[in-house]
């Protein structure tokens, strides 16, 4: 059974969650319920674990210690303490709190694995995760603590600790409260962990995967927005859209490139500014700069990278990550599926692509501000150059962000620090890759916003020639919050206003009101 989103409910079954399911729960507070098939499978696999509990032969995670301590057989009367001790000791995170949407995604994805029946937990333990999500209770999880192998151990342990009624959680309105009190206030019974359950709750790639899914959702909005800002820059700098012609793009058949070029053609259609310099005798420029002419090649490569990352994410969403696992035929087997390498690699790959997309955006912005390259506009687009500085320092802000994004593009997944007395001697660092990608996505949003702000001013300054209907619609949406050209004003609030315009999708929606859907 595949999980589906209907209205405001996500049904978690024995099949894969969709990326849309994850976003709905993480960001939109969709309710969660277990499917009948998941309930049956959870009960069936728990019977397998219960049957091993009395076995005199040690079984990892059921009757042994963990990691480098797995060689100790734990007597029956200490096993509940074993599970509690595991969660308490592994809830060792440090640093700032992780964002609410990330924690909710992490809990949902752990519940998804529990629902497959491959972990051997009891039904009440799985149900507790759904109950916390539905109550809007978010465990406090910290920035540092995961090496991305043996699962996102510390982050997941903090989630499990809350299910046990220990540690701290935030309520739906953000209030920090004791977990035991929060569970009591919402009619949720704290879980008393039994054999295998502590390990099952902390042994997965759920944190890094959740952040990957959320980043991909953001990029679905930011990629067409990058085409919008590129089109505005080409138009505002009197560039040509001829290079975006379909037959030229088909000579290099990368699908992302062709999609980006198609968007650019739609966005620039019927531009009076473009028509004003179409005459080859009046316009002596032979070719535009790379940052204009090669926009679809760069944005297209990012699209293709996103497509690959989406494939990896969808495969991981279909995975049951735990160690040991209960197999379909009832065996309990150790494995290495918790290793985060597949997710870590694409997280790093996306950070590289995001940094380059921001870099070309910043180069287009910079061209607007240089009177030697902006084709007749005032220096820095200032109202009275010398008295006014225009967008001079907005580009500084862009440049600072792009420089940071280049540092964030250094891969985390090539690093590995051995842990657990050399038992866990090669780790993925996927959590770290995911954390820096989140910062990269925020940076890209801000860089594109500053390009949009600058390009909109340039388009206004090209009057009486009108921009394309699509770019005019974007400028009109911006002008609801930010005034047009004039003497210098406090620029930071205007930058933040356009950041929100990009982040909440209003800039994209404005263009699509003319062009139709931009993919």
Question: In short, what is this structure?
Answer:
It contains 20 helices and 10 strands. The protein has helices at 19-28, 36-53, 79-90, 100-115, 123-135, 153-163, 179-185, 197-202, 206-236, 246-249, 255-268, 272-275, 290-293, 295-317, 341-369, 392-408, 430-461, 469-479, 491-503, 506-515; strands spanning 5-6, 9-12, 31-34, 94-97, 138-139, 142-144, 168-170, 176-178, 325-326, 332-333.
What are the key terms here?
L-Aspartase-like, mainly alpha, elongated, Fumarase C, Chain A, domain 2, 519 residues, Histidine ammonia-lyase, Fumarase/histidase_N, 6% strand, 3-stranded antiparallel sheet, histidine metabolism, Fumarase C, Chain B, domain 1, 2 domains, disordered N terminus
How does this structure look, described?
With 519 residues, this protein is mostly helical. The chain has two domains: 5-204, Fumarase/aspartase (N-terminal domain) (Fumarase C, Chain B, domain 1, Orthogonal Bundle); 212-416 and 425-513, Fumarase/aspartase (Central domain) (Fumarase C, Chain A, domain 2, Up-down Bundle). It is built from 20 helices and ten strands. It has helices at residues 19-28, 36-53, 79-90, 100-115, 123-135, 153-163, 179-185, 197-202, 206-236, 246-249, 255-268, 272-275, 290-293, 295-317, 341-369, 392-408, 430-461, 469-479, 491-503, 506-515; strands at residues 5-6, 9-12, 31-34, 94-97, 138-139, 142-144, 168-170, 176-178, 325-326, 332-333. It has a three-stranded mixed beta sheet with strand order 1-2-3. Strands 5-7-8 form a three-stranded antiparallel beta sheet. 52% of the residues are buried.
